Amino acid sequence: MPNEPIAVNCKPQFTMCNVCLTFLSVVAMAGLLLAGCEEAPRTTDTPDMEEATTSTEVLTGGQAYRTSSSDFGSGSFGGSSPATIPPSQDPDPTSQLTASRTTAIVRAARTVAPAVVTIAVRRRERVRRRSFFDPYYLPFRETQGLGSGFIIDPRGTVLTNHHVVDDATEILVTLPDARDFTARLAGSDPATDIAVLVLQDAEDLPVAPLGTASDLMIGEWTVAIGNPFGGLLSNAEPSVTAGVVSALGRHLVPGGDDEGFHLGMIQTDASINPGNSGGPLVNALGEVVGINASILSRSGGSEGLGFAIPIDRALKVARDLAEFGEVRRAWLGFQVDAVEADNFGRSRGVRIARVTLGSPAAEAGVQSGARLLRVGASPMATPLDYEAAMLDLRAGDRIELAVEGSGPVVVQAVALPSVTAERVELLEDLQVVTVTAAIQAERGLASSEGALVVEISDNLSRMIGLATGDVLLGVNNRRVDTAREAAEELRRTQQGGRSFFLAFERGGRLVRTGLLTWR
Predict the structure, then answer these.
(1) Phi, psi dihedral angles at 24 (to 5 degrees)
(2) From the candidates 71, 189, 193, 392, which is the catalytic residue?
(3) Is 162 a catalytic residue?
C-alpha cells in the first residue's frame, strides 16, 4: 500500500492573526505546541507536505529570518518532532511571552502615568435659604471636589478641566509618588472647559509627552489615565483604561445642569468615570492627544461614551491664559444659520446669514445668503461645525472659506470687537464698552445701543444684580446709548445722593434691578 500523507488535527491554544506585527515572539512557542499534536487518520485529499512546503519571512526580536512550513516538523510526516528554532532565537518560551506582554498600551501608560496628578479642591458655595424661619440657615457651606490633570512642563504647569477647579478656594495637587503641592489657578476658560494650574515650589517633576489630535484615526488605540476615586483608593497612582477612537469632531449639546457646548470632541470607549475629568487621553505612541472631559451616561458611570478635548485646542487656550489671563478669540464678522433644518433638529448644511459691515468677512467679499461649504479643513454640516472652527481660531490667523458658487475666499481674523473697544469704568469694579454694530453681531445682542458689561467683580455683581454680558440701557428713567452716558448718569445720582435702579438687557429680555442706594 503506498504511503499516504498524514493530516494534522490540532487545536491551537491561541490565535496568531497578525504574526508579523503583534505576536512575533511566540513563533517558536507555536512550533512546540504543534509538535505535541496527535496524528489524524490518513486522507487521500491531503497534499504531500514536502511538495506544499511554503516559506514565510518573519520578523522576531528585531531580526528577520525565513521559515517554511517544514520548520514546524521533521522530514517525516505528522510533525512529531520539535520545531526547528533559528539559532538567533531564545528557546525559552517564557521569556518570549513575557516580552510580548509589554505592548504599546503598556509602554504608553508607563510613559504618561507618572505625570498624571490628582486634584483636590475646596469650594465655598452660597446656600439658598429654604425657609425664612430656618434657625440653622448659613449663607455659605464648604464643599470638596476631585479631578485629574497632567503636568506639561518642568515648571509645574498643569492642564485640567474648568469644571474641576471652578469656584475653588483651595487647590491641592498630588503626584503618583505621593508628593503634595499647593496649586495656583493661572486661568480658566468655561467655553472650552480648560483650566491651567501652576504648582508652587515644585521641582524634579515628570512631564507628559504631548502629541496632536490632528492625525487621529478612527479605530486606533487610546488610553485614558486619571483618578476616578481620588483619595478613596489606597494609593496615589492613577488608573488606566484602554479603548479606541470611536469618532472625531463630536458636538455635545448641554442638558440638565451642564454649561455650554462641547464642540469638536474626540469620542472614545476607554472608560472615563467621575474623577477622570482633566486627565489625559493618550495614543499608542505614549503622547497626550486629548483631555478627558465628559461622558454620556444613564447610570452616572462609564458606558463606553467618553469625550476628550483635542490637545491642540487645549494648548492654544493654555498659552492665551498664561500670557493674557484670558482667551483671545478671533472674529470674522459673519453669522450662520442651518440649511434645511427639519423638525428633529437636523440640518443639511450652513448658510451665511448676516455679514457685519466693515468686518474682515465683508472686506474679503463674503456675502449673506451663500452656502458655506468649508472653513479651513472642516466641512460645514451644522452651525456647530462653524462654532467649533471658531474656537480654534486666533486673531491674525488667515482662514480659507469655501463658499458655494464662488472660488475660495481667504479671510484674516481679528480680535473680538468687545475686546478691542475702549473701556469705561462706571464703578471701581465695573467696566463697560459702548455697543456697536460689530459688538452686537459678535454677542448676538438684541440692542444696538447701550453699554455692554465686560468686567464686574463677584461681590459687586451680587450687590447690584449686573453680570458680564449684560447691556445697560437706562439709569432710573433716563436712557443711555453709550458707555460714557452711563457713567455720567451714575455720577449724577451719586452726587445728589439719590436712590436709583438700572434697566438692562440679559438674554434678549429687558430686566430691572431693585432700588439701589449709595453708601
Answers:
(1) -65, -35
(2) 193
(3) no
